[in-house]
């Protein structure tokens, strides 16, 4: 045999990132996927030449119309906002992954879900790999989540976790967290790529075969992505992201992947010392109820998933002697605020180049949707002119570079929410009305006016400079 043939028949070595599982044929100092340094290591090449033959099947294939669906029906988690995100509730045999930053309230939320499930006479097992059983019990006492059918185990070994499942026979298993569980006989440390893949695969296989709902808690990296191999997100049925600022009590759950429902729903919660509470109407957290007109404020109507949320935008514009005026934003997209300021200067005559500009939202709301542009522009113009917009006004619309207002999606839903909360006037982009409606119409007692551009909107509210 020639040297070339023997070299080609030899299996090639593979280098894999220990953080995300990215593979490459040769060693590199920096991972090409997660950009981590020093995490690429050589792994043993896989054996070649193996052949898989047909074997026995677990159950015969049937026509799709004959498959039973009653075993996969939704079961309420006991938390309405979580059911909203999941599309109806928990599904037997489903695997869910909940990720979020440390301290955001993941364990508190899942302890609430476990307790509510146990109260419905559905046995629940909560496995804690990060805290001791006594620590979890203290949290359960504080949040009033002590119930008879809720079982608690503090384990970090995969075999022990499966043993607890055999002994308890629960309908819901919560593992907090998957990065802390260790599989014996598998190379790597807990939280590594190989360990996470093996642990997740074993737990998901157990959930599928026994019809148990499995909820895994996942860690996140410093840039907010889920830690570990990307295959973890492919293995599970639902990926949820729990987010919120430490300075705010508001928490939101978003579905990044959902095989059983929509992925554009958002659940809102309020975290307090007594636990976590679902917020069915979170608009009041983002709007200040002023008894009189206040310059520099305007209310926007944003969509979080399918839910319209009203949020107040506040602006402060002050003269500055500095050569480079300050531009500070909180809860808003800084680049869109800068673009809005440029449009106001070019098309509305507002001179902001020698002004310090501060723009923020109320209550920790985050407005990154273009439909909030008009509310930001109204707040900036109101602060610059020291004149207040009409009380009870909402502004909805995206601003173009030519100063035009562009239509936004789901306008009817936004207007209905604003009218329900008692607002009396809505400014919307031109041509947003139906073919049979005039330029001014009424929605549930709220007057709606459409305008073609930002200058017309400010002229209507008497905020243009004289």
UniProtKB/TrEMBL annotation:
Domain RecA family profile: 71-220
CDD domains: RadA_SMS_N
Keyword vocabulary terms for this entry: ATP-binding, DNA damage, DNA repair, DNA-binding, Hydrolase, Metal-binding, Nucleotide-binding, Stress response, Zinc, Zinc-finger
Gene3D superfamilies, per the entry: 3.30.230.10, P-loop containing nucleotide triphosphate hydrolases
Sequence motif: RadA KNRFG motif, positions: 257-261
SMART domains tied to this protein: AAA
Protein family per UniProt: Belongs to the RecA family. RadA subfamily.
Domain description: The middle region has homology to RecA with ATPase motifs including the RadA KNRFG motif, while the C-terminus is homologous to Lon protease.
Known role: DNA-dependent ATPase involved in processing of recombination intermediates, plays a role in repairing DNA breaks. Stimulates the branch migration of RecA-mediated strand transfer reactions, allowing the 3' invading strand to extend heteroduplex DNA faster. Binds ssDNA in the presence of ADP but not other nucleotides, has ATPase activity that is stimulated by ssDNA and various branched DNA structures, but inhibited by SSB. Does not have RecA's homology-searching function. Plays a role in repairing double-strand DNA breaks, probably involving stabilizing or processing branched DNA or blocked replication forks.
Name the UniProt record assigns to this protein: DNA repair protein RadA
Organism field: Nocardioides imazamoxiresistens
Gene transcribed to yield this protein: radA
């Amino acid at each position: 045999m020639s040297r070339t043939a023997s070299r080609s028949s030899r299996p090639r070595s593979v280098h894999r990132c220990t953080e995300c599982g990215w593979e490459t044929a040769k060693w590199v100092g920096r991972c090409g996927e997660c950009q981590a340094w020093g995490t690429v290591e050589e792994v043993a090449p896989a054996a070649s030449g193996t052949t898989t033959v047909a074997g026995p099947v677990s159950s015969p294939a049937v026509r799709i119309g004959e498959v039973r669906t009653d075993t996969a029906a939704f079961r309420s988690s006991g938390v309405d906002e979580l059911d909203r995100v999941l599309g109806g509730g928990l599904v037997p045999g489903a695997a869910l992954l909940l990720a979020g930053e440390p301290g955001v309230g993941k364990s508190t939320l899942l302890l609430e879900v476990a307790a509510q499930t146990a109260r419905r006479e559905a046995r629940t097992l909560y496995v804690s790999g990060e805290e001791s059983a006594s620590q979890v019990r203290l949290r359960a006492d504080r949040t009033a989540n002590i119930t008879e059918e809720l079982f608690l185990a503090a384990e970090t070994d995969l075999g022990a976790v499966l043993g607890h499942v055999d002994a308890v026979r629960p309908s819901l298993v919560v593992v907090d967290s998957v990065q802390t569980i260790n599989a014996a006989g598998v190379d790597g440390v807990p939280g590594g790529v190989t360990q996470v893949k093996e642990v997740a695969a074993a737990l998901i296989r157990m959930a599928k075969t026994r019809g148990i709902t499995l909820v895994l808690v996942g860690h996140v990296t410093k840039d907010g992505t889920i830690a570990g191999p990307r295959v973890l997100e492919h293995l599970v049925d639902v990926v949820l992201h729990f987010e919120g600022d430490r300075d705010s009590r508001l928490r939101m759950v978003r579905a990044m992947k959902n095989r059983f429902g929509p992925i554009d729903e958002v659940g809102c919660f309020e975290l307090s010392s007594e636990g976590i509470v679902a917020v069915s109407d979170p608009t009041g957290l983002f709007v200040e109820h002023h008894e009189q007109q206040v310059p520099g404020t305007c209310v926007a109507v944003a969509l979080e998933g399918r839910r319209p949320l009203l949020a107040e935008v506040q602006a402060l514009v002050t003269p500055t002697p500095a050569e480079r005026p300050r531009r500070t934003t909180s809860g808003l997209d800084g680049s869109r605020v800068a673009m809005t300021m440029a449009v106001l200067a070019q098309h509305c005559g507002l001179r902001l180049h020698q002004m310090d500009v501060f723009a923020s939202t109320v209550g920790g709301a985050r407005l990154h949707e273009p439909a909030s542009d008009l509310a930001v522009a109204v707040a900036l113009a109101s602060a610059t002119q020291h004149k207040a917009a009409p009380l009870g006004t909402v502004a909805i619309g995206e601003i173009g570079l030519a100063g035009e207002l562009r239509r936004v999606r789901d306008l009817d839903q936004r207007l209905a929410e604003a009218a329900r909360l008692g607002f009396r006037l809505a400014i919307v982009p031109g041509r947003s009305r139906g073919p049979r409606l005039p330029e001014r119409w009424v929605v549930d007692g709220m007057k709606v006016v459409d305008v073609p551009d930002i200058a017309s909107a400010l002229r209507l509210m008497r905020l243009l400079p004289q």
